[in-house]
Amino acid sequence: MQIVLLASWPSYNISNMAGDSLDVAKRQHNFNGQVNNMLCFFRKLSSIVKSCLFGSYCTSFYGCELWDLSCDQIMHYCTAWRKGLHRVWDLPYQTHCYLLPLLSHCLPVFDEICSRLMNFVFTCLSHTSKLIRYVAHHCIRFGLNFSPFGRNILFCARRYGFDVDDVFFNKFSYFPDVIYSCVSSKFTSAQNCTADLLFESDGRAVLSAWFLSSDVSDIISCCALISDCVHLLCAIVCVPVVQFI
Predict the structure, then answer these.
(1) N or C terminus of the chain with fewer C-beta within 10 Å?
(2) Calpha distance 47→198 (Å, rounded)
(3) Quick one: residue 184, left, alpha or beta (phi over 0 = left, psi -120 to 50 = alpha)?
(4) pTM to 2 decimal places
(5) How far apart (Å, rounded) are the C-alpha atoms in residues 70 and 75?
(6) Among 71, 104, 137, which residue terminates a domain?
(7) Pick from 193, 238, 231: nearest CA to 99
(8) SS3 letters across 135-154
(9) Is pLDDT larger for residue 10 or for residue 116?
(10) Of 58, 81, 104, which residue sits at a domain end?
(11) Which of 7-11, 53-57, 196-200, 240-244 has the lowest mean pLDDT?
(12) What confidence tier does 236 reach under pLDDT thresholds 50, 70, 90?
């Protein structure tokens, strides 16, 4: 039997030395290329259309279900994802991170990876193969920190506040609801305000006579950067002020 340090499969790289870092770095490189291609070919489209294209063509995350969630390289991947959304929405790079998934109507990328991991877990637990079901049950009940599979379950349980035993006794639909409920939604008013202004910037809406069109970029920057004045801006730049066309 030949011993190798790195084995490549169609959608996953297995390394004996670097854990999942090499595979995550490769996915990050592919992601950056997808974003660059999408923005190059569709740069003249509106931000909301580019956001839909971003979700369709740049969020495959192949193999993320097998990643160890404690891998530091995943945080670099999440940073690249946020930078991509900055470019899609043409927002300042200092924009608060919580606004980006809200504007795009999606989960933050790390929570999306956790959601796909839970989907993979339930696929294994309900698989037609007895061997796969046995291995999945053993990793969760007895492996935990000694198994990447069980370690990820324990990580998600701590992050989203459920018990490990819930994986066996709750339906799959329970866990997406838990993940979504744990993602903060208290900044929805700021998201609505910023979205309305982005519509105006794209030419899909017009402001009332209270503001000049040249003021829009400054107001967007304030909504995106200064959390202390978000509620004041939302009171001023409210829905009646923006008229969609």
Answers:
(1) N
(2) 8
(3) beta
(4) 0.74
(5) 9
(6) 104
(7) 193
(8) HHHHHHHHHHHHCHHHHHHH
(9) 116
(10) 104
(11) 240-244
(12) very low
In the numeric block, the tokens 């580019």 are attached to 50
Q: Do 192 and 141 lie in a common domain? A: no
- State the Cα–Cα distance between residues 111 and 27, nearest whole angstrom: 17
- pLDDT tens digits along 168-185: 876 666 666 777 776 655
Euclidean distance between CA atoms 203 and 228, whole angstroms? 28
pLDDT higher than 90, residue 81: yes
Report how far residue 89's alpha carbon sits from residue 103's, in angstroms, rounded to the nearest whole number.
Answer: 9
Number of H helices, E strands in the chain: 12, 4
> Do residues 157 and 173 both lie within one domain?
yes
Is position 67 within any domain?
A: yes
Total number of domains in the chain: 3
Rounded distance, CA 223 to CA 21, Å? 35
Q: Dihedral of CA 107/217/211/48: which sign?
A: negative
Query: Are residue 138 and residue 73 in the same domain, yes or no?
Result: no
How high is the pLDDT of residue 113? Answer: 92
Q: Which domain holds residue 33?
A: 6-104
